[in-house]
Write a structure and sequence with these properties.
Elements (H helix, E strand, L loop, with lengths): L8 H13 L10 E2 L4 E3 H9 L3 E2 L2 E2 L9 E3 L2 H18 L5 H26 L3 H40 L10 H6 L13 H14 L6 H25 L15 H6 L14 H33 L8 H42 L1
Antiparallel strand pairs: 1-2, 2-5, 3-4
Organism: Flavobacterium panici
Protein name: Lipoprotein
Length: 357
């Protein structure tokens, strides 16, 4: 039997039964083209959509493939039969019982057509297994890439948090520093803007006359230089985790692209799970470069703030560094969660394929 491509057969069956039950008020159609030996899904969709509502189903929510599929001789015979039955119903003048019998026979014909189509659309089991093995290998390779990205992200987050935390920028023993970098800026779901935090910080420094305290200024200068040197070393270390030229962490989709037309013909496994996974993996890979770059920008902004070229720290420069800090830390935290969740989903799919085989 020639393979077919057709989906949602049971759903389509229910809809067609309702359509054919009302044949007396609608045009009878052949669903198959005998010359091209194809099934006109597009025409069938239009026929279904000719009803505003069918059996309490919102037809606007029903999605059918609109391409053509090859058909067998048996489907051709059944199509002739359903057309004949529909024509009889349009001009039928017999009893209600006789009409119901015709409707039932017509419905059964449609069910058999779609049953054959569904069975014929499946690939041979051996081919399905080979496809699943191929998908598993490609997913496993990509999954390993995501694991590496997650490990790198955790390292990046560790360094960023170390600089932002109480051991460096928010060291309470350095009053000027801890005032300029309020802890609120790195708290989750903080509502006050970095600009307002910067204004409050400068107001507090003035009110406490910290810039008139020579000891505090000396402590700030020493620690600021130390943090700047730490940042330089950190940036050098983080460069080993970068892949801006896309040569180390590669999401492979060659098998997916080559076999995407066969995915809907795998009946032994819900292969449609593959469909959203590949775009997700590519997005996560692209996001890694963005996260890495934003964190580097954050470190650079701190170094520039603590060692300004003009020797002056002002409201705008503090606003800039606090904004960069909040954006970088929020971005990397969100990205870490997305990476972990996607990695878990892919791992589960790989385990399902392994169990299937």
């Amino acid at each position: 039997m020639t393979p077919l491509k057709i989906n949602n057969c049971y759903l389509i069956t229910l809809i067609l039964i309702q359509v054919l039950a009302s044949c007396s008020s609608s045009k009878c159609d052949n669903f198959f083209s005998y010359e091209s030996r194809s099934l006109d899904i597009k025409g069938l969709t239009k026929k279904i959509e000719s009803k505003e509502k069918i059996s309490n189903l919102n037809v606007g929510s029903i999605t059918l493939k609109k391409d053509f599929v090859e058909v067998s001789e048996r489907l051709k015979e059944l199509d002739i039969l359903q057309y004949s039955l529909c024509s009889q119903l349009k001009s039928f003048n017999g009893t209600t019982e006789e009409k119901n019998a015709l409707i039932a026979k017509n419905s059964e014909t449609i069910r058999e057509m779609l049953k054959i189509a569904q069975q014929s659309s499946d690939l041979p089991e051996s081919q399905q297994n080979r496809l699943l093995v191929g998908y598993k290998q490609e997913l496993s390779s990509n999954h390993q890439v995501l694991i590496e990205l997650l490990k790198n992200t955790e390292i990046i987050l560790k360094y960023a948090s170390l600089i932002a935390d109480t051991t460096c920028l928010r060291n309470k023993r350095i009053k000027i520093l801890s005032t300029l970098f309020p802890y609120q800026n790195i708290e989750t779901n903080v509502k006050i803007s970095p600009r307002d935090l910067a204004k409050n910080a400068f107001s507090e420094i003035v009110s406490k006359e910290l810039l008139k305290d020579s000891l505090e200024i000396q402590k700030f200068t020493l620690v600021a230089n130390s943090i700047s040197m730490t940042i330089d070393k950190t940036i050098t270390t983080l460069k080993s985790l970068s892949d801006l030229d896309r040569t180390r962490y590669i999401i492979n989709e060659s098998f997916w692209i080559s076999n995407i037309d066969k995915i809907q013909r795998i009946s032994s496994f819900d292969a449609m799970k593959f469909q959203p996974i590949y775009p997700q993996m590519k997005t996560l890979r692209n996001s890694y470069d963005i996260v890495y770059s934003r964190v580097i920008d954050y470190f650079i902004s701190i170094r520039e703030f603590l060692s300004p070229k003009n020797g002056i720290i002002n409201l705008d420069s503090l606003d800039k560094v606090l904004t960069s800090e909040r954006f970088a830390l929020d971005l990397i935290a969100t990205y870490s969660i997305e990476l972990a969740e996607s990695s878990k989903r892919i791992k589960n799919i790989i385990e399902e394929i392994t169990t299937q085989n």
